[in-house]
Write a structure and sequence with these properties.
This protein is mainly beta. It is built from six helices and 58 strands. α1 packs antiparallel against α6 and α2 packs antiparallel against α3. The protein starts with a helix and ends with a helix. The protein binds 2-acetamido-2-deoxy-beta-D-glucopyranose.
C-alpha cells in the first residue's frame, strides 16, 4: 500500500494539471454543437436594374437577377435591404415599374404556364400592399393618373385602381403590348407598332398612330424601331404623331438620356443627337462596347473594350471623367444609379462605380450556377492527418485479400493514435498560450483544433470563378480565381473533385484544371484527351481519378497508388444502365469490361441516379432500438439508385441496383406523377431519399425515404461484415444554391460533448484534492505503523 501511495502522489498532481485542459482538448461545448455558424446572402447575376421614380429616394436600387430574384439593395453599401425569390415556381418573364409619385413599385412575374402575378410592394422594406393574378403574360406596366395599366402579350390591357381592384379590360386586337409610357400604349404585331390611348370614360382603346418596324424601346417621346437593317429614331409630338426621325444602319445599341440620344455602332463609334431637335451634335471614334445614359442630363457613359468607363458631355463633347474599372472581366450590364454606375461583370462581381472610385462590390458568382461545393481541411488541423490516415486504412482494407493488409491497417491505426498522443503536449502549451491571447484567436485555435475551421470552395459554372470561403470567418472570401475553364452550358457536364487539398475541375472535352485549395493558385492545366473524344464520366476509385472516354478507355487524371484491384463502375444511358468491371491490364493500364445491363421498361427514361459518395464514412453499423436491441444497417459499397419516368403514363419507377451483379435489390412504382417537375434523389450509407410531384391522392410534392436493413428483425445481421468507421460526432454541413449556409450537425446527442451530469471538472478536481488530503493524513500514520512493526510492537 505504501509503495502505491508514493507513486500516486506525483501522478495525482499531474492528473490534476491535465484535468484542467481536458475540456478544451477532447470535446466541444454543448452550446457550440448544432449551431448555424453563418449564412451568406446572395442574389445572383444582375440582368436588369431599376431605380425609384420619386426623386430623393435614391437610397435604394432594385435588381432582377438571373437566379430569378428581385432584390432591393442599399445604394450606400450594397447590402440587401430585402429580396424575394421567384425561382421555385420558375419564371418565364418579369416586368418592374417604379410607381411615380409614390415610394412603391410594381413587380409582375409570369410563370412557365403563362399566367402572371402582379405585386405592389414598398421600396424600403418589401412589404406587400396587394397582389393580383392574371391569366396572361404581363409584358408592360404603366401608370395613368389614378389608374394602373397592365398590358399582356395577348393584347389585353387591364385598367386597375391603385388599390389593386380591377376596373375593366380593353384589347389591342391581338397586338402584343410592348410598352406603356405616360398612359400611352405601344403594341406590336406583324412588324408594325401601334400607338393608342385608353379612354377611361368609354372604356375603350383609341389608336392614334401606327409605325412600320419592330419595337426596340420608348422613352418619353423618343420611340426607337428596327426596320430591316436600320434603326429608326422617331420623335413624337404631343399628339403622338412623328415630328421628326433619323434612320441609321449598323447600330448596336441606343442610349437615351435626358438631353441626348447616343447611337453606338458595331465598330465602336458613338454618334450623339440632340434629344429635342434630333440634330447631330457630335461623333466619337471610340472603341465603345456599351453606351449607357448618363447620371446627368447631357451626359452619357461609354465603356471601352479595355473596361475604361468614360463619362462624356454629349453637348460639348468634353470628357468629364475616365475611370479604369478595377476588374478586367467583360461587362454584362451597366446602368446609371444616382450619380454612380452599377456594373455587373461576367465573373460575377457587381460593383457600384462612382466617377473616381468604386463604392462597393458584391461577389455574386457563388449564386451563379454553382456546380460544386467542397470542404477543404486546413493543414493546421489535426483532422487533416486523421483523414489521411483513415483514407490509407480504407485503401488497405479494400485491398484485403490477405490478412497481411488487415494487420498493416491495424499497425497504421495504432501508429496514428500514438502520433495523436505525441501532439498532446503541444495542445497543452497552445491552451496555456491561448489564455493570454485575444478572444478571437482563442476561438480560432479552438476551431482549428476541432477541424471546424475549414475552407468551403465553390465553383461557379456560369462565371468560371472559383471562390474559397472561410468557415470560421463567417464565410468571408479567402481567395477567388477567375477564368477557370468550367466547360460549356454553365458547367453542366463538368466534374469537380477534391484530392487532398487539390481541386480537380474536369470538363467534358478533357480540360483538367488543378487548383491548390489552400492558396487559390492554379498548379496545372492540361488537356488529357488526344483526339476529338469526349469524357463520358469521371470515375473515382481508391487508386485515383480517371476519365472514361467515348472509346471506352480509362485515361488517368490523377493517381495516388498503382491500381491493383478489381473495381466496379457503371454507365447510365437514356433508358438503360450498364455495369462494368475495371481491372488492371497487361501493361498496367486499366481495362473496362462490360458485365451486365439493366433495361428499363418501354416508355421509361432515366430521370436521375444517385450513389453513395466514394469513401463515405459509416458512423455506426446499426440503429439502437428502444429495448436496446440493434437493427443492423444494410451497408453495401456498390449500390446505385435509379429514378425512371414514363411521361405518357405519368409513372415513376425507383430501383436500387447492386452494381457488382446488376441485381435489382428493391423497386417501387408511383402513379399519377407530374413528369415535368424535377425528381431529386439522394443516397447515403443505408438510405435513399427522393422527391416527386404527385397529382394523387393529393396534389403536391412527395418525399419518400427508404431505410435499408439487414433484416426486418432486430439483432439479426444475416451475413455483414462491417465497414471501416471513422467515429466523428460533429460534421460541418453546407448548403449552397443561391445563398450559402454552413451548420454543424451532430447525430442525435453529440457524444463528444461533455455532459455536465456525467462529467464535472470541478468535482474531479475536488476528488483529487480530497484524495491528496487523505494521503497526507494517512502517510504519517502508516509510517508510524511500519516503524512499530519493525520494532515488533503492535
Ligand atoms: C447599409 O446601409 C443601410 C442604409 O444606409 C444601413 O441601414 C445598413 O445597416 C448598412 N449595412 C451595412 C452592412 O453596413
Amino acid at each position: 500500500m505504501t509503495k502505491s501511495i508514493r507513486i500516486s502522489t506525483p501522478f495525482s498532481l499531474l492528473a490534476l494539471l491535465l484535468v484542467l485542459f481536458v475540456s478544451t482538448v477532447a470535446a466541444i461545448y454543448e452550446d457550440d454543437a448544432g449551431v448555424l455558424d453563418w449564412h451568406r446572402t446572395q442574389i445572383g447575376l444582375t440582368s436588369a436594374v431599376y431605380t425609384p421614380a420619386a426623386s430623393g429616394a435614391s437610397d435604394y436600387v432594385g435588381v432582377y437577377t438571373e437566379s430569378d430574384i428581385f432584390a432591393v439593395l442599399h445604394a450606400a453599401n450594397g447590402s440587401i435591404a430585402w429580396r424575394r425569390s421567384f425561382s421555385d415556381g420558375g419564371v418565364k418573364a418579369h416586368c418592374v415599374l417604379s410607381l411615380p409619385g409614390t415610394t412603391d413599385l410594381l413587380v409582375a412575374i409570369t410563370r412557365p404556364a403563362g399566367n402572371s402575378i402582379l405585386y405592389r410592394t414598398a421600396w424600403a422594406d418589401g412589404s406587400l400592399d396587394w397582389e393580383l393574378s392574371t391569366m396572361g403574360q404581363i409584358t408592360a406596366l404603366g401608370a395613368s393618373g389614378e389608374s394602373l395599366l397592365v398590358g399582356e402579350a395577348s393584347g389585353d390591357i387591364h385598367v386597375i385602381e391603385t388599390s389593386g381592384i380591377k376596373q375593366f379590360t380593353v384589347s389591342s386586337n391581338g397586338a402584343t403590348v410592348v410598352a406603356i409610357e405616360d398612359g400611352v400604349v405601344f403594341a406590336e404585331q406583324n412588324d408594325a407598332v401601334t400607338v393608342s390611348t385608353v379612354d377611361i370614360d368609354s372604356q375603350s382603346l383609341v389608336e392614334v398612330a401606327r409605325f412600320e418596324g419592330s419595337f426596340v424601346s420608348v422613352e418619353s417621346e423618343i420611340l426607337v424601331l428596327r426596320n430591316a437593317d436600320s434603326l429608326v429614331i422617331v420623335k413624337l409630338g404631343e399628339d403622338l404623331q412623328a415630328i421628326d426621325s433619323i434612320t441609321e444602319s449598323d447600330v448596336e445599341s441606343v442610349a437615351v438620356s435626358e438631353k441626348v440620344v447616343v447611337l453606338n455602332s458595331a465598330s465602336g463609334a458613338a454618334t450623339v443627337y440632340d434629344r429635342e431637335s434630333l440634330g447631330e451634335l457630335n461623333h466619337l471614334e471610340a472603341s465603345a462596347t456599351t453606351v449607357a445614359p448618363g447620371a446627368e442630363a447631357e451626359t452619357f457613359a461609354v465603356l471601352t473594350a479595355e473596361n475604361e468607363l468614360n463619362i462624356i458631355n454629349g453637348v460639348t463633347n468634353a470628357v468629364i471623367s475616365t475611370t479604369k474599372l478595377s476588374i478586367s472581366s467583360p461587362v454584362l450590364t451597366i446602368s446609371a444609379v444616382g450619380n454612380d454606375y452599377l456594373v455587373q461583370y461576367s465573373n460575377g462581381i457587381l460593383q457600384l462605380v462612382s466617377e473616381s472610385s468604386f463604392v462597393w462590390e458584391r461577389d455574386e458568382s457563388i449564386a451563379a450556377s454553382p456546380i460544386a461545393g467542397l470542404f477543404v481541411q486546413l493543414p493546421e488541423t489535426a483532422a487533416l492527418d486523421i483523414a489521411a490516415g483513415i483514407r490509407e486504412e480504407i485503401l488497405l482494407d479494400d485491398a484485403s485479400d490477405s490478412n497481411v493488409n488487415i494487420l498493416l491497417a491495424y499497425v497504421k491505426r495504432v501508429t496514428r493514435h500514438l502520433n495523436d498522443f505525441q501532439a498532446f503536449p503541444r495542445y497543452v502549451i497552445r491552451t496555456l498560450q491561448s489564455s493570454f491571447m485575444a478572444v478571437d484567436e482563442v476561438e480560432l485555435e479552438r476551431a482549428n483544433m476541432f477541424g471546424l475551421h475549414q475552407y468551403f470552395v465553390l465553383v461557379s459554372g456560369r462565371t468560371g470563378r472559383v471562390v474559397a470561403l472561410d468557415t470560421f470567418l463567417k464565410g468571408e472570401t479567402v481567395w477567388a480565381l477567375d477564368g477557370v475553364d468550367v466547360g460549356a452550358e454553365n458547367g453542366k457536364d463538368t466534374t469537380v473533385r477534391l484530392i487532398g487539398t487539390d481541386v480537380y475541375i474536369v470538363t467534358k472535352t478533357g480540360i483538367v484544371t488543378v487548383i491548390n485549395a489552400l492558396t487559390g493558385e492554379i498548379t496545372k492545366t492540361k488537356q488529357i484527351l488526344s483526339t476529338d473524344q469526349v469524357i463520358l464520366k469521371v470515375v473515382e476509385i481508391p487508386s485515383g481519378l480517371y476519365a472514361w472516354t467515348t472509346s471506352d478507355e480509362l485515361v488517368r487524371i490523377h493517381e495516388t497508388a498503382a491500381p491493383t484491384e478489381i473495381y466496379y463502375t457503371n454507365r447510365v444511358n437514356e433508358d438503360s444502365v450498364w455495369g462494368y468491371m475495371i481491372s488492371v491490364g497487361a501493361e498496367g493500364n486499366l481495362v473496362l469490361t462490360k458485365t451486365w445491363s439493366f433495361n428499363l421498361d418501354d416508355g421509361y427514361t432515366v430521370a436521375t441516379t444517385a450513389m453513395r459518395p466514394q469513401l463515405d464514412k459509416t458512423v455506426n453499423i446499426g440503429q439502437v432500438l428502444k429495448d436496446r436491441r440493434v437493427m443492423y444497417k444494410y451497408l453495401h459499397a456498390n449500390l446505385l439508385s435509379i429514378a425512371a419516368i414514363n411521361s405518357e403514363e405519368r409513372r415513376l419507377q425507383v430501383f436500387l441496383l447492386d452494381t457488382v451483379t446488376g441485381r435489382v435489390l428493391h423497386a417501387k412504382a408511383h402513379n399519377e406523377i407530374d413528369s415535368a417537375r424535377d425528381i431529386a434523389l439522394a443516397q447515403g450509407e443505408h438510405w435513399l431519399v427522393y422527391t416527386y410531384t404527385a397529382a394523387a391522392p393529393t396534389l403536391g410534392e412527395q418525399l419518400t425515404i427508404w431505410d435499408l436493413y439487414e433484416s426486418k428483425l432486430a439483432g439479426n445481421t444475416g451475413l455483414l461484415v462491417s465497414g471501416p468507421t471513422a467515429l466523428e460526432s460533429t460534421t460541418l454541413v453546407a448548403a449552397a444554391g443561391t445563398d450559402v449556409y454552413v451548420v454543424r450537425v451532430t447525430p442525435s446527442k453529440p457524444f463528444d460533448v461533455l455532459n455536465t451530469i456525467a462529467f464535472s471538472k470541478q468535482q474531479l478536481i475536488y476528488t483529487v484534492a480530497a484524495m491528496l488530503a487523505v494521503v497526507g493524513y494517512l502517510r504519517p500514520q502508516v509510517g508510524k505503523k511500519r516503524a512499530n512493526a519493525k520494532w515488533g510492537v503492535e
